[in-house]
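Section 5: illustrative case.
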């Protein structure tokens, strides 16, 4: 009999003698045995029977024994009847006694096999099976399941997380065994990668055909699981990406940078996207792209467009600058810079210089005449991939002679000097060449004419007046 249960047996007492039997007492000994009816004094006529009901209610597992004693006036006045019974009890245990599923990615599940064993001596039956905890379940066990004494049965505990958080739960099994209920603890953590992009969309603006524009994008995994990529899809003519592949992974809380690229092939507005399929949320992330292609315009500007150096003494030099500007929308490559014309040279811009749109470069042009006379037809020629190549800067300048006069200082203090010039020995006027008094002992006359003879004299000047003329010097200017 199962521990905690009861069973009843009836004993029939029959009078087989010739006189009435008077029963004075019915007593029972032994753990768990009880007389529940027919235990009082009574009389049993000849040939008649009396019934005594005995109940067995074990309080522990194992065998029990006892005696039913009937006292009467019969010849066998103390009749003993042996009693025996066995207490039975199912005993349930679980292995493992608790289950930790660890980290389980959302969208998947994890199962662990749990074995229930009946360690008792009676069949184990199930009256209720209760599972708690979001995403927790079991399969293979029901209220119709039984486990024979000493037997076992296995079932699956399963965790299929519905959120990226930790979950605690249990499987409570109510049985006819001990303990009841048996509680099996369950724990697990749902994991989920979470993807975001910054910026979420990109506008490349206007990009010249033949050129590329790259823009950085940062991907962030805000989840608690590693982010993986199953597919990377591009749409839109001219759009591409670098730095991202299906082998890329981003750890939980990590970031990754890659570049979106626009290389237009025509002058048109283009819309497209980058679509990232991942194990994260959202599982498909789309980054919008837009851009406009433009036909390349290559124009090289020069400022000024011509240079006039005027008169420059032979043996000296004069420099001026020209600003070169890329006035188009695509890169200009300057292949050569060539100066023509006697005495002219160019520097500051080397061959194969590249100017991006709106970029400038400074070209220095130098005039260093070695002979007198006007240089005509001179120029600086800039060849490039611009549509106005070759670009020409016109140059002009005149090489001239000069006359250097030097004299000995006057012994009179605080004097200055005036220089006079004439084209004949006695043709000096009263107006000096110099507009202001000369305080040094030299003067250069740059306003001379080739082939002309000049006569020079010098006067010292102070507050008292002018000295007489110095000795006369004369010079004839060479003819080119």
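Designed sequence:
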């Amino acid at each position: 009999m199962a521990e905690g249960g009861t069973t009843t047996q009836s004993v029939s007492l029959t009078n087989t003698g010739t006189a009435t039997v008077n029963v004075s007492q019915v007593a029972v000994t032994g753990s768990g045995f009880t007389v529940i009816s027919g235990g009082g004094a009574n009389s049993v006529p000849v040939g008649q029977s009396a019934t005594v009901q005995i109940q067995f209610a074990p309080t522990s597992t194992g065998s029990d024994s006892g005696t039913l004693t009937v006292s009467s006036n019969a010849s066998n006045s103390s009749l003993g009847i042996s009693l025996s019974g066995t207490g039975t009890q199912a005993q349930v245990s679980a292995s493992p006694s608790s289950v930790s599923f660890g980290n389980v990615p959302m969208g998947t599940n994890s199962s662990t096999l749990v074995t229930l064993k009946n360690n008792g001596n009676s069949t184990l039956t199930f009256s209720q099976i209760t599972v708690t905890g979001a995403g927790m379940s079991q399969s293979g066990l029901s209220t119709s399941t039984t486990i024979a004494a000493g037997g076992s049965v296995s079932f699956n505990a399963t965790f299929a997380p519905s959120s990226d958080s930790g979950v605690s739960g249990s499987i409570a099994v109510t049985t006819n065994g001990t303990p009841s209920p048996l509680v099996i603890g369950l724990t697990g953590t749902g994991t989920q990668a979470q993807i975001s992009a910054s910026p979420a969309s990109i506008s490349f603006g206007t990009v010249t055909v033949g050129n590329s524009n790259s823009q950085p994008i940062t991907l962030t995994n805000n989840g608690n699981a590693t982010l993986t990529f199953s597919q990377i899809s591009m749409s839109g003519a001219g759009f591409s990406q670098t730095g991202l592949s299906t082998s890329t992974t981003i750890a939980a809380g990590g970031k990754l940078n890659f570049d979106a690229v626009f290389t237009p092939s025509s002058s048109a507005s283009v819309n497209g996207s980058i679509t990232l399929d991942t194990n994260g949320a959202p599982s498909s992330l789309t980054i919008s792209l837009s851009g406009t292609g433009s036909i390349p315009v290559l124009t090289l500007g020069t400022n000024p467009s011509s240079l006039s150096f005027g008169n420059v003494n032979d043996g000296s030099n004069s420099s001026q600058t020209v600003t070169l500007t890329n006035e188009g929308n695509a890169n200009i490559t300057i292949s050569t810079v060539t100066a023509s014309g006697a005495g002219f040279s160019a520097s500051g811009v080397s061959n194969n210089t590249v100017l991006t749109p709106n970029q400038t470069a400074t070209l220095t042009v130098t005039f260093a005449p070695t002979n007198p006379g006007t240089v005509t037809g001179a120029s600086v020629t800039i060849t490039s991939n611009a549509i106005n190549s070759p670009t020409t800067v016109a140059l002009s300048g005149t090489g001239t002679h000069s006359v250097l006069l030097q004299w000995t200082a006057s012994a009179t203090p605080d004097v200055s000097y005036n220089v006079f010039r004439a084209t004949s020995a006695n043709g000096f006027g009263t107006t000096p060449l110099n507009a202001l008094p000369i305080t040094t002992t030299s003067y250069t006359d740059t306003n001379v004419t080739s082939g002309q003879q000049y006569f020079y004299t010098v006067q010292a000047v102070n507050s008292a007046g002018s000295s007489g003329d110095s000795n006369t010097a004369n010079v004839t200017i060479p003819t080119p």
